Amino acid sequence: MTQIAAPSTWHFEEQGDGPPLLLLHGLGASSFSWRHNLAPLARHFRVIAPDLPPHGRSPASLEADYTLEALAAAVLGFLDHLSIPRAALAGNSLGGGLALLLARDQPERIAALTLLAPAAALTRVPWLFYPLRLPVLGLAAARLLGPWLIPWALRLVYHRRELVTPQVVAGYALPFRDRRRRLALRRLCRQLKILPLGQVELLLQNIRQPATLIWGAQDRILPASQAFWIKDRLPQAEFHLLPQVGHAPQEEAPARVNKIIIDFLTRSLNN
C-alpha cells in the first residue's frame, strides 16, 4: 500500500481570518457539504474545508492506505502543510470519527471539537455503504455511483427530502464521474474497520478538549440513540439534538449549526 496523496495536492476551500477551524466531511461527501457554513463561520474564524482523499477534487489512488489511522495522519500532515500548529475541528460522520482520533492522539494540536453525528459508536458499517465492501456487488455499486445512486442516497441522508434538489445532486455527483474515484471510495469502504465499543469508550474517556455534539433527531444513517451513548461517555460535551434533521445537520439546519459552532468556539477558545 502507498501513502495517501501529499497534502500539497489536496483541494480545499478557505475563508476568513482568526483562530483556525478545520471542517472534515463525511464518507462519500466533500467540502461541498460545508457550502452553507463557510462564509458565516469565516466571519469569526479562519475556516478550511479540505476534500479528504479520495473525495471531491483531491487525488484518488487505488493503492493508498485509507484506514482511519492513515486518514488521521494525513489530516495532521495537511495542518503541517498549512503551518497550523493548533486548530479546532468540526467533523460530520466519518469526519467526526477522524476528529476524535486526532483529539486523542494529538491533544496539543486540537483545541476543541464540534462533532456532527460522528461515526464513533458504530457496531457495523452503515448499510448505505455496505454494498461497496462486497467483492462482486461492490464493483457494480462503484460503477453506479453518480447520478443514479446519489439522489437515492441523499434522500436517506437528509430528513427533508425537498432539500434534494438537482443542484445538490450535481454537487455530490460531479466528483464521481471519475471512475478511478469511484473505485478508490470502494477501497476506502473495504478498509474501514469498526472499533469494538469497549475501545470506543476508552477513546472517549481520553478526550480532554471541550466538545459539542450535534445530532439530527431523524438521522437514518447513525440513529440518535448513538448520540446519547456518546454523550454519556463524553461528559464535557454540550449536546444539541435537532428536530426534523437527518444525518447532515450542517446542510439541513445550517443557521442553527453555525450559531452553535460560533457560540461554542467563541467560549471555548477564549478560555
Task: Describe the secondary structure blueprint for this structure.
Elements: E1 12-15, E2 20-24, H1 38-42, E3 46-50, H2 68-81, E4 87-92, H3 94-105, E5 110-116, H4 137-144, H5 149-157, H6 166-173, H7 179-191, H8 197-205, E6 211-216, H9 225-233, E7 238-242, H10 249-252, H11 254-269
Parallel strand pairs: 2-3, 2-4, 4-5, 5-6, 6-7
Antiparallel strand pairs: 1-3
Helix pairs in contact: 2-3, 4-7
The SSE string, one letter per element, is EEHEHEHEHHHHHEHEHH
Structural class: alpha/beta
Main CATH class: Alpha Beta
What CATH architecture label applies? 3-Layer(aba) Sandwich
Contiguous low-pLDDT stretches (5 residues minimum) are: none
Note the gap between the termini: 43 Å
